[in-house]
Amino acid sequence: MRISVIGSGYVGLVAAACLSELGHTVVCVDSDLEKIATLNSGGTLIHEDYLQELLSRHRHHKLTFSTSIEDAVRESLVIFIAVGTPCGLNGGADLSYVESVARAIAQSTNGYKVIVEKSTVPVYTNEWVRRAMVLNGSCAEEFDVVSNPEFLREGTAVTDFLYPDRIVVGANSERAARVLHQVYAPLIDGSYAQQASAVPRPECNRSTPLYIETSAQSAELIKHASNAFLAMKISFINAVADICESVGADIEEVIQGIGSDGRIGPGFLRAGIGFGGSCFPKDVSAFRSVAHEFGYEFRLLDEVNKINEEQRQRFIKKVRAALWTLKNKRVAALGLAFKDGTDDVRESPAIHIITSLLEEGCQVTAFDPAAMERARTILGDKITYAEDPYSAAKGADALLILTEWKEFANLDLSRLKELLSYPIVLDGRNLYSPEEMANAGLNYYSVGRAPREISRLTPAKSKLAKHAAGKNGSHKSLDH
Ligand code: UGA
User: Fold this and answer.
1) Residue 5, by phi and psi: left (phi above 0), alpha (psi -120 to 50) or beta?
2) Is residue 245 a contact partner of residue 450, using CB atoms and an 8 Å limit?
3) Which residues of the chain have a pLDDT value below 50?
4) What per-residue confidence (pLDDT) applies to 478?
5) Any catalytic annotation for residue 28?
6) Do residues 72 and 29 lie in contact, with contact meaning Cβ atoms separated by under 8 Å?
7) What is the C-alpha to C-alpha distance for residues 213 and 123, in angstroms, rounded to an integer?
8) Ligand 1 atom with minimal separation from the 276 CA
9) Residue 64 to residue 81: CA distance in whole angstroms
10) How many A from CA of 23 to the centre of ligand 1?
C-alpha cells in the first residue's frame, strides 16, 4: 500500500520506518529542508533502538523522504498526520500544524484518501480535520478521517510499534476501517514476527496485538486518558513515597506490595523525581483542558501535575539538606534525558533540577550516554559536560542520579567514593539499595526511603536515626 507520513518527529519517523518494514511504500514528509536532507543522506535525527537499522534497510527503496506534501498526497491512499501538537494557550493543544496539513491535503488530493490522525489530539479533532478538508475544497465522499493513536514510548518506540499490546482504530466509516486493517495486517496476523529479518520481539510481549475498533471520538479519548492514567500512577506513587519518608517506610517494599495486586499492576509505579518528556506533561494539561471545554472540571489532573512539580522541589530540598549550602558547591549530575534510552530532553526533570541548582549558585558537571548534544542546546556552557560518570564525579561535592539509565545502575562504587570530594550520592531514580551504598561507604539519599548517612549511623542506632530523619520529613547536612 502507498502511504504518506507527514512529520518526521519521534512518532512520524518511527511510524514511517516501521510501515515500510511492514512492506508498504512510504514517503515521509517534513517542511524542514535540513531534516529531510539529513534523512536522505543517511542520518537518523533521533536516538532510538533499531531505527538506524530500519532506515538503512528501507531508505531509497520502500522509504523515501520529501518536502513536498502535494506529491506525497497524490501518490498515497493513506496519509498519516504525525505533526507536533504542542501546548497552546490555557494548557490546550495547539492544533495549528494539524490544520495546515489538513488544508494542504485538501488542496492536493486526487481521489479517495484515508487521513489518519497519529498525533495526540483532543477529542473532535477528527471532525475538525474533516471540516477543514471540506472548507478547502475536498468533496466529503472523497476522504475519511480515522483516529489511530500511537502508544509508543521513546527508547523502545520501534518495538512498541512492531509489537504493540493493542492497535486502536477509531473510524466512522467501514471503508476506512478496512483500509487501516490492511495497513496493520502483518501485525494482526502475526506474519511480520515470523519473518527472518524481523526486529526481535521483546520478551514480555503477547503473541498478537488486540485490534480494537472504536468510534473516532473514543479513539481520541483513549489516547489522552491512557497517558493521563499513567501519569496519575506515577504521581500517586510519588505521593506515597513522600509519606514513606515521613513514617520511615520503604517505597520499594510498598511498590512490591501494591503492584502485585493484579488490579493495580507493577507498571508505572517507579518513584522518583517525576515524569517528563514531550507527552505526559503536555497531555495531562491538554486532557484537563478538553474536559473543561466539555463541562467537566478534572481536578484530579491538576493534582497529578502539582505532585509532579513538587517532586522535583523535594529532591532539590534533599540536595540542599545534604550539602548544607549550595552556593559554589560542585555537583555531578548523571542523566540529562527525561528517561533512559532516549536523547530527548524535553520537559526533562533532570534539566529542571540542574537549572534550579544553577540558580542557587551550584557548579554542575553532567554526563548522559545520549542526550548531551540536545542538553547543550538548552544549557549551553552553563554546565560542564563530562565524558563518563567517573570524570563527572571527580572532585564533586555530591553525585546526583537524575535519569534511570541502566548504565548508572552498575557503577563502581568504591571508585566513585575515591573520586568524590564528599561521599554523597542523591539518587532521584532509586537505582541502588541503601545497603549497597552504605557498604560502599557512601551517604545515600533516595526517594521514599530513609537516608543512609554513614557518618551518623551505627548498627545499634540505625532504626532510631531512620525514624528521626523520617519524622522531620528531611534530614540535616552531614558533619563535613
Ligand atoms: C509515554 C507513554 O508511555 C506512551 O504509551 C505514549 O505513546 C507516549 O507517552 C506518547 O504519548 O507519545 P514516553 O513519554 O516516551 O511515553 O515515556 P514513558 O516511558 O511513559 O516515561 C515518561 C516519564 O515518566 C519519564 O520521565 C519517566 O522517567 C517517568 N516514569 C515512568 C516514572 O517516573 N516512573 C515510572 O514508573 C515510569
Assistant:
1) beta
2) yes
3) 457-480
4) 39
5) no
6) yes
7) 16
8) 26
9) 16
10) 29
